[in-house]
Structures are given as C-alpha cells and as structure tokens.
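Running this now, will post back.
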Amino acid sequence: MSKPVFMSPEHVQQMNTQLGKDIASIGACAALTRKYQISYDLDDEAGGKVWWTMSFVKGEGVRFHLAPPEGGQADITFSGSYWRMLEFMRRAKAGEVSPAD
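Update: finished.
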C-alpha cells in the first residue's frame, strides 16, 4: 500500500481509524465538558478554500475532517496559505522548524 498524500481523504481516513483505537486520546477527551474544534482555513493558489478541522469530543475522542467547523466557528482557527502550511508541516516533520517559525 502506498503512503497517502498528506491530508488527503485517504490520509484523514487512516488517521481517524488510528485515533478511533487510541486509548490515550479517547481518555483525554472523556474529561471534556463540550466539543472543541481547531480549524485550518487555508487559501489555495486557485482562489479556493481548503479546510482541515480537528474535533475533540467526549465519548468519541479526536477526529479529523476536511470541512469547515461544525457550527461555523472553531475554538481556534489558523488562516493562511495552503502551500505554505504544507511546507511548514514538511519542515516540522523533518525537525527543521524553530520557535521563530
């Protein structure tokens, strides 16, 4: 099986499958009093939008979605360039990111 493209539907499905079995994240979310969301509102070069949203839900754990946050607004939203974010994530994975980045 080939490695899926970062944050593609296949990649998100794989992450959600792993998170669905992750006792630590499910346990951490058990203490929540409400749903929390972190979103990335990213612009692509063609003028479109790309959304990455993480939801933290009591009884469910952590889930990724390739959609805007439910309810229209996340608790935290990062905005910027899709391609710059991909490059940042690549650099972070390679250990090339400093606190100034």
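The radius of gyration is 15 Å. More later if anyone needs it.
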